[in-house]
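Training component of the fellowship. As part of building independent skills, the fellow (R.M.) carried out the full modelling exercise for a liganded target. The chosen ligand was beta-D-fucopyranose. The inputs are recorded below so that the supervisory panel can assess the work.
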Amino acid sequence: MNPTSTAPLAAVPVAGLPPTFQWGVATSAYQIEGAAFEDGRTASIWDTFSRTPGAVVGGDNGDVACDHYHRMPQDVALIKSLGVDSYRFSVSWPRVQPGGRGPANPAGLDFYDRLVDELLANGIDPWVTLYHWDLPQELEDAGGWPVRDTAYRFADYASLVFSRLEDRVQTFTTLNEPWCSAWLGYQVGVHAPGRQNFDDALFAVHHLLLGHGLATQAMRSLETRPHTYGITLNMGTADPASDSSEDREAARRADGMGLRIYLDPLRYGRYPADMVDELAARGSAFPVRDGDLEIISTPFDVLGVNFYFGQNFAGTDEQGNTHDAAGEPVVRAVLPDGARTAMDWPITPSRFTQLLLRLHNDYPGLPLVVTENGAAFPDQPDESGFVADGDRTEYLSSHIAAVADARAQGADVRGYFAWSLLDNFEWAEGYAKRFGIVHVDYETQARTPKQSALWFRDTIARTRSGQ
Ligand code: FCB
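Fellow's submitted model of the complex:
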């Protein structure tokens, strides 16, 4: 910890979480590692996309990022200083399997091997995410996630990572936020690979889910001891902007495309009927083959929940039209009133409780772990590099309190990972938006825990001691 960090901590106690609650911090490979072309790593879709003029704020890319690849032992010491139980990181597919096919690259796997050993030596539990958006470019060139073969390639890659790490890693999650991979990557086009086609996105959803199921089955078939398998979804709440029937329909559609088209097949082995009908009405369908839904609904042990904010939805545009130019029903997000983060995301902790309870009620029997929650704010470091981020501290404390609230009402939430350990490459926002609880000076790569990190450390210690 920074000895000059004397700013008062926001005294927001978080009550009601048990001493056994699992605390962690999260990152992902492309956002922190750098060393983009070292030791045999090949390009991912993010290396390509970030070099596309205009795609990323400031023309930034992840070539260096937080240089974590070269600073890993110091970063693990930093994680240890926070007193967390677990560290969630992702494995870079093109580092481990250059080009996305064929044998493993030993040097790539060695890095994660060393990271796992370093974590374990420091008493930190490694929580692996296999895919946090860095698809090997060659697989995108062959069609990407809209193509069925990519799901099989993913299971193959998962097996390579699993075989090397399963003796020491307990938890393997397959995908991070398939909604973002599919819709932001293939329909909206603001994330890699930057394509804009509705049916490509729909096909990507199905093949991502298929890849999850195939990878889970492949890992189970290889295991020499029991593991915890999971998937992480980004979810919010979709409330109607008013009680009108148009707004209620818009909220139903937003919830269907945002949450149910993932969780219904994963848990119940079927796509939601209302969404299937509406897709058919516009001439679209998930590319389901016999047996796919059995694979997708392979049992898993934990659902990772990434929550940032909840939204309302209106079924009319600003002119009052209920259908867009293409004749599709309007589904317009209307952000709740109140404070916003630097991403312009609303701050809605009570909706976090609402989401966790809804998951508990609609998808019962599935343990939940918050795998990401956090916020970007316009940080102002002092001369020593310390950031007195009362805003982020308040965001974290109100959202952790929301978790405690959901637990008190029966939701089976077992852990909470703050996003993020470090300021890092925030995708299309480049380095302009800072989500870290630890400040990174990108010139010197100096890491300085912010006030929020100190508060998080103290909260964990208090909870552990039952206070
Ligand atoms: C999530 C991503 C994560 C980070 C946060 C702010 O959607 O999983 O990598 O960018 O948003």
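The panel noted the following from the submitted structure. The chain is about 40% helix and 15% strand. Confidence is low (pLDDT under 50) at residues 1-6.
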